[in-house]
Specification:
The chain starts with 11 loop residues before the first helix and ends in a 16-residue tail after the last strand. The longest helix has 52 residues. It is 30% helix and 24% strand. A hairpin with a 4-residue loop joins strand 2 and strand 3. The strands form 2 sheets. A 5-stranded antiparallel beta sheet has the order 3-2-1-5-6, with helices on one face. Strands 4-7-8-9 form a 4-stranded antiparallel beta sheet, with helices on one face. The chain has one domain: 3-Layer(bab) Sandwich (minor pseudopilin epsh fold). By secondary structure, it is of the alpha+beta class.
Length: 176
């Protein structure tokens, strides 16, 4: 009587079924992955700008001088001492996110100046100081959450979610 040795592999049919199941799972996960990537890029750009603003405020207090945060293209920013002019730090937009869309309030304002006490002060040259920075994505898809950085007159900084569907009292909500 001939006996067949035990098989230690997969048959072609089993491999095809496994690949079919895997491809179905990947097709179902792809939209969620795209939304997750957009939200991550928005968060990265917002974190980069918040870090720059915190650096400008900290340097103003540490040096006992006015320090400016200047927003450039997309998530690019520069922190520099006002007088005498001295650059403290520069971050290119590649370190933030290329797909982030930045909007400031008031609209044309790209500069915020912190005084020696860490509060927001008049810009040099005189222009309106930023009150907030909105970060969104250049791709419109359901589930993408924008972020906002709020700069108060006292100089405190806060990142929040401008969505109105959050409950009152939620710490992520911009307005309480």
């Amino acid at each position: 009587m001939l006996t067949r040795p035990p098989s230690h592999g997969f048959t072609l049919i089993e491999m095809l079924i496994g690949l079919a199941v895997l491809s179905i799972l990947l097709a179902l996960a792809a939209p969620s992955f795209s939304v997750w990537m957009q939200n991550t890029q928005i968060r990265t750009a917002a974190d980069a700008m918040l870090n720059g603003l915190q650096l400008a405020r900290t340097e103003a207090i540490r040096r006992n001088k006015a320090v400016q945060f200047v927003l450039g293209n997309q998530s690019e920013w520069t922190v520099s001492v006002v007088s005498p002019p001295q650059q403290v730090q520069y971050r290119p937009m590649e370190e933030g996110s290329a797909s982030a869309v930045i909007q400031t309030s008031p609209g044309a304002s790209l500069v915020v100046t912190f005084d020696a006490m860490g509060g927001r002060t008049t810009n040099n040259p005189v222009s309106s100081a930023m009150d907030s920075i909105d970060i969104t994505s250049n791709q419109t898809m359901a589930g993408v959450r924008p972020l906002r950085i709020v700069i108060t007159p006292s100089g405190s900084l806060r990142m929040c979610d401008p969505a109105t569907d959050l409950k009152v009292g939620d710490p992520r909500r911009c307005t309480q």
